[in-house]
Amino acid sequence: MLIQTIKARKATKAIFLVCGLGISSWAPMVPYAKDRLNLNNADLGLLLLLLGAGAIAMMPVSGILAHRYGTRIVIRYSAIIMALTLPLLLLINSPIWMGLALFILGGTVGTVDVAMNAHGVQVQNSSEKPIMSSLHGLFSVGGLFGALGLGFLMKLGLSPIAAAISIAFLLILIVSWNYRFLFDVHTEKELIRKFSSETEQVNLKGISWLKGSIIFLGFMCFSVFLSEGAMLDWSAVFLDENKGINPEMAGIGYAAFSIAMATMRLLGDKIVSHLSGKTVVIGGSIIAASGIFLAILTPWIATSLLGFVLLGIGAANIVPVFFSEGGRIKNVPATIAIPAISTMGYAGQLAGPALLGFIAYQFSLNIAFAFIGALMLIVAITYGLRK
């Protein structure tokens, strides 16, 4: 079992990397799609809403499928569909078909995300040592390479569509190779039976998402995840339109953010163990807000990128604190609280950027980014005042 667990841990890390690569590869494509389809910011925001809608719609379904067929089956097929969808985003010339493609992309990303986190928990249980922070760190590493990959391949002389096809092929190759090392459904069920806690065996009748603690933590996660979604969907447009960066290099903003977040997440277990959760949340939120306001106010690209780095540093380890607190809510099993908080959080990451699009259309993209900074300050204040 030890050798199987070691192989499964490495394979799970590869899947987190793939998911980060897949979703972040969309970031440098956004300006191309916006220009090709002749979209204003509100139209683009509506399309991005479909990306989030697909993810949120499929997250509950992913849990059902994973329970029935096992997480590795769900990971394999949803990741392949995700990869095959990417090149289409550079070919489609109809806003309606682009919306459908983004819905599919969001749905596959949401499905992979839920399944890989569920698989990661089982690997962690089998390893009997924490690995989740490092897994999410690899997701951010994938985000870095995905944001830079398209532009890098184009610099080498590939057309945008050829670059997207190359990335899709790489994703399929990684998933196909690592699939055999993931736990099968029978192993997962054995681990669930072995490591189920008494709190997970309680009667779930009457337990609701509407419990105050869940709503509070869900809103906190929504705010923090929205900042991540903003970097994915709007950082390239922000640097292109507001700072005058070349379109093929516009993905560097998300890359800077991802480097900072990946580094802090890889160090996250040590940081949280040395500082209180409250300190991590309050301090991180203030640093993140400062980064956003710096990116808005500075006229230079370099300092805008520094602002994105500060956002990544500040936001990186906030959500793990919320998840840990969610697992300790009195009279609510972690199996109820964590999925509820996660769904509200990912609504911010995947659907929240659509809200930013409407704000940008009515006012400006700077005002939309300032809204993110204000949300992070609200997180710091409300969590600090909470007993």
What this model shows, in words?
It is a single chain. The protein has helices spanning 2-24, 30-36, 41-69, 71-85, 95-127, 132-155, 160-178, 185-195, 212-242, 252-266, 268-274, 277-297, 301-315, 318-326, 334-350, 352-362, 365-385. With 387 residues, it is mainly α. Helix 1 runs parallel beside helix 4 (71-85), helix 3 runs antiparallel to helix 4 (71-85) and helix 9 (212-242) packs antiparallel against helix 10. The longest helix has 33 residues, at 95-127. Residues 197-207 have low confidence and may be disordered.
Outline:
This protein is mainly α and 387 residues long. The chain is built from 17 helices and no strands. The protein folds into two domains: 1-195, Up-down Bundle (Growth Hormone, Chain: A); 205-387, Growth Hormone, Chain: A (Up-down Bundle).
Shape: globular
> What is the CATH third-level topology name of the largest domain?
Growth Hormone, Chain: A
Unreliable parts:
197-207
Secondary-structure element series: HHHHHHHHHHHHHHHHH
Count of runs of 4 or more consecutive helical residues: 17
The major pleated sheet works out as: none
CATH superfamily of the largest domain: MFS general substrate transporter like domains
Overall pLDDT metric: 84
CATH architecture of the largest domain: Up-down Bundle
Strand content: under 5%
CATH structural class of the largest domain: Mainly Alpha
Helical content stands at: over 70%
- Tell me the number of strands: 0
- Radius of gyration, CA atoms, in whole angstroms: 20 Å
N-C termini distance? 44 Å
